[in-house]
């Protein structure tokens, strides 16, 4: 089976208005926790909590190993001395960022066309640092049904450019890893494909360049 693997953020969807690194928005998440649970947290503890999240942010401190969001927030909760489920802490934090997920206009139509042509479709995405899979998936329900296999950095245990996720996809479809086609929008996606020795298609939305595509309909032409 021919298999196309998609990165998600910046490739099939985006969080509207959010940059690659979300470090400047952490205080909004903490403020939501303070308000909901009526916490009395010192500025020092708030700064320490913010720094802990920044330390785990791979956009700031490079890492390929993925750490469970629960473990990251459990460490922060120790500073807060809060006796609530870590899930409630995380849910409130992420609700405070008021994220709005948007699927690009060409995404669903192209995924549908690929499925009609008999392609296997997989997703390989790095989760936003410290975001649990279940929260991210909640933002993309209209996409999940098109993936024959979904691999996040949480599922793989590694972040790109580590190619463990592509290895898992290769094994799932019983397809040589070199025959996968990986579509992504960042240099780390390209490096992931390079590490796996598979084909890479770079998408730069709204930015037409010879070595890349700027919308997914071009992908259909390249795969013909």
- Strand % is 5-15%
Helix count equals 11
CATH-assigned homologous superfamily of the largest domain? HAD superfamily/HAD-like
Report low-confidence residues grouped into runs of 5 or more: none
List the helices and strands in order: EEHHHHEHEHHEHHEHEH
CATH topology of the largest domain: Rossmann fold
Structural class: alpha/beta
The CATH architecture of the largest domain = 3-Layer(aba) Sandwich
Head-to-tail CA distance between termini: 15 Å
Biggest sheet character: 5 strands, parallel
> What integer value in Å does the Rg equal?
19 Å
Total strands: the figure is 7
What is the residue-mean pLDDT, rounded to a whole number? 96
Query: How many independent structural domains?
Result: 2
Q: Please write the CATH class name of the largest domain.
A: Alpha Beta
Task: Give the overall form.
Answer: elongated
With strands numbered from the N-terminus, the spatial order across the biggest sheet is 5-4-1-6-7
Helix proportion = 40-55%
Structure commentary:
The protein is an alpha/beta fold. The protein has two domains: about 140 residues, HAD superfamily/HAD-like (Rossmann fold, 3-Layer(aba) Sandwich), CATH 3.40.50; about 70 residues. A five-stranded parallel sheet has the order 5-4-1-6-7, with helices on both faces. A two-stranded antiparallel sheet has the order 2-3. Strand 6, helix 10 and strand 7 form a beta-alpha-beta unit. The model has no long low-confidence stretch (mean pLDDT about 95).
């Amino acid at each position: 089976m021919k298999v196309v693997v998609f990165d998600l953020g910046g490739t099939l969807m985006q969080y509207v208005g959010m940059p690659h690194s979300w470090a400047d928005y952490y205080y909004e998440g903490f403020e939501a926790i303070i308000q909901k649970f009526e916490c009395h947290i010192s500025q020092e503890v708030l700064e320490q909590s913010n720094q802990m999240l920044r330390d785990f942010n791979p956009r700031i401190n490079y890492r390929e190993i993925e750490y469970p969001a629960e473990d990251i927030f459990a460490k922060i909760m120790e500073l807060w001395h809060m006796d609530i489920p870590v899930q409630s802490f995380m849910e409130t934090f992420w609700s405070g960022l008021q994220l709005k997920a948007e699927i690009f206009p060409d995404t669903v139509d192209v995924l549908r066309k690929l499925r009609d042509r008999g392609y296997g479709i997989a997703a390989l995405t790095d989760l936003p640092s410290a975001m649990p899979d279940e929260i991210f998936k909640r933002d993309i329900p209209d996409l999940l049904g098109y993936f024959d296999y979904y691999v996040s950095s949480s599922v793989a245990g590694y972040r790109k450019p580590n190619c463990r996720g592509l290895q898992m996809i290769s094994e799932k479809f019983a397809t040589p890893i070199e025959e996968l086609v990986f579509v992504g929008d960042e240099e780390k996606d390209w490096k992931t494909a390079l590490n796996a020795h598979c084909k890479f298609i770079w998408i730069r939305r709204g930015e037409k360049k010879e070595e890349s595509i700027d919308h997914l309909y071009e992908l259909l032409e390249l795969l013909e």
